[in-house]
Each structure stands twice: as structure tokens, then as C-alpha cells.
Amino acid sequence: MVDEVDPSRRAFFRRAASKAAEKVVEHAQTKIEARATRWVRPPFAVPELEFMLACTRCGDCIEACPPKVLFPLAASYGADVASTVALDVLSGGCQLCEDWPCVTACEANALKLPETEEGEKVWPKMAQARIISDECLPFRGPECGACAGSCPIAETLTFQRERPYINPENCAGCGLCLAACIAEPKAIKMSSLYIQD
């Protein structure tokens, strides 16, 4: 005669196993996101853990990028992320191409356009830009305006009394304002989305 397990005990063990699995995934995700503060992913990258699991390291997105600002991460970042793609925000940044060629080239869906209504414009969130007022020329006295017009997203890079401000809600983290900045050192800092202020 086979002993039957009480259904309530079976449900308890299932819930316990599920909670344990959630904790393991949560811990892995926290560790992965802590490391991901060292690079910026291309437009419409899925969250970091999903990205690492989805990216096949094929290089198709790198080949498809017109401004050639995508590159494979070096092995020095770790074998698990080696050859996954990152965005070089220091050498021109993402041009926010109209048809997102890097995204459409990604068959593995590591880069994935969101579902939108027809005609709706959606911007990616790749990083966060902020003005370093101590380095920004207009905050120190002389006029500048080199970054004016560099941001294609309405109401993101604005000016108040000749001084630039970045609306973090709208910022895609493309790096175009950083590329336009003439201050030395640069007056715009790009930060990973995984850095918690």
C-alpha cells in the first residue's frame, strides 16, 4: 500500500520550493545588476539577467549599428558577460536611429522593441545623464550652449537662465549631450541604470 502525502503538505512543499527558487533568482539578479553598473546596454535591452540569458553573442546588432558605437565586452569583465554587447557612450553615444537597426537585427530578443500603438514614439532607457554643475561652463560664468540642440527628445535637455538641465524622467541615456559637451573634463556624467543614487 502506497502512503499518500497529505495534499496540504504537498502544497506547502511546493510553496516552499517556489519561494526558495525566487530567493535564488533574486540573489543572482542583485549580483548581476551590481556588476552591470560598469557598462551600458544598447537601446531596448531587456533587464540584465534576461539579457545575459538571451544574448547569443552573435554580433549582429554590432554590425547593424550605423554610427558603430556598439562593441563586445572584453573577457576581463567576466566569462559570463564576455562578448555581450555594450554601448560606447563616450565616443558619440547612441544616435537613436529612426528604425532601430540594432534592435531589429537581434533575433534572440535580447534587444526588444516594446509594443506600442501605431504612430506612438517610445524612447529607450539605456543610462542616465546628469549635469556636473562644477564643470559646466554656464554654471561658472561664461556662456556656452554647446549641448543645446543635441538631445532629440522634447523637454529633456532644457535651459534656465543660460544653464542646461536634464529631466531624468525623459532622459534615454543616449550620450548625445555628452558628445556635444566642450568642457574639460566633461560636464555631463553618464550612469548605468543599475546605479542606485
Descriptive overview:
The structure is a single chain. With 197 residues, the protein is α+β, with helices and mostly antiparallel strands. It folds into 2 domains: 40-124, no CATH class; 125-197, Alpha-Beta Plaits (2-Layer Sandwich). It has 6 helices and 6 strands; from the N terminus they run H-H-H-E-E-H-E-H-E-E-H-E. A two-stranded antiparallel sheet has the order 1-2. The longest helix has 29 residues, at 7-35. The model has no long low-confidence stretch (mean pLDDT 87).
Biggest sheet: strand arrangement:
1-2
Mean pLDDT: 87
SSE topology string: HHHEEHEHEEHE
Q: How many E strands? A: 6
Strand content: 5-15%
Q: Gap between N and C termini, in Å?
A: 61 Å
Structural class: alpha+beta
Unreliable residue runs = none
Q: In brief, what are we looking at here?
A:
It contains six helices and six strands, in the order αααββαβαββαβ. The chain has 197 residues and is of the alpha+beta class.
Q: What keywords describe this structure?
A:
197 residues; alpha+beta; Alpha-Beta Plaits; 2 domains; two-stranded antiparallel sheet; 6 strands; 28% helix; globular
